[in-house]
Amino acid sequence: MRPTAKQAVTHTDWPAQKAQIITFKSVNGLGTGVVKEVRWGLVWRDFVLEDGRVIPEHKILDHPEPPVWRKTEEVTQDEREARERRLVSMAEAGLDPRDQEQSFWAELNQYLAYTYLRFKQPGHKPPNAER
Fold first, then answer.
1. How many angstroms separate the CA atoms of 52 and 109, rounded?
2. Strand 21-26 relative to strand 54-56: parallel, antiparallel, unpaired?
3. 112 CB contacts (<8 Å, ≥6 apart)?
4. Nearest CA to 77 among 46, 108, 118, 47?
5. Which residues contact 48 (CB under 8 A, 6 or more apart)?
6. Contacts of range 56-63, beta carbons closer than 8 Å, 24 or more positions apart
7. pLDDT mean over 22-44
8. Residues with Cβ < 8 Å from 9, sequence gap 6 or more?
């Protein structure tokens, strides 16, 4: 027997837990899904849904502001290399990186964000950043 999904998450019980329903922004508007797993990526949390979609924390409605991001120095070399091997494996398997709610897209975006943050000069802000 499958457990029933729990009610939607609120700030007080963040992050969402297994079997909770989340609502998120998608290329097709708003979507919902049931959380299967919450895992840390190289930079932010990803929410893996029961149907296999992977939703980054900052796309989930009512996530705490600002979202929690890891510091680049918290990521070990072994962890980074494991992510690189996983990306190579996904590419070799022919997965489509353009499917924005699948694991290849999630892994690729985490790696790109991590690489950018790792090499960004301290104190440098993008041209359109709030002042």
1. 17
2. unpaired
3. none
4. 118
5. 35, 36, 37, 38, 39, 54, 103
6. 56/106, 56/109, 57/15, 59/24, 59/25, 59/26, 60/16, 60/22, 60/23, 60/24, 61/22, 61/23, 61/24, 61/25, 61/30, 62/9, 62/10, 62/11, 62/23, 63/14
7. 95
8. 15, 16, 17, 20, 21, 22, 62
Please name the amino acid found at residue 8. Answer: A
**Residue 67 identity (one-letter amino acid):** P
CA separation for the pair 57, 78 (Å, rounded): 24
Q: Which two three-digit tokens encode residue 18?
A: 């297994």
Angle CA(78)–CA(79)–CA(84) in degrees, nearest 5?
95
Q: 3-state DSSP call for residue 29?
A: strand
At 87, list the tokens: 């990306």
pLDDT of residue 114: 96
Q: pLDDT tens for residues 48-104?
A: 999 999 999 999 998 988 888 999 999 999 999 999 999 999 999 998 888 878 899
DSSP 3-state of 55: strand
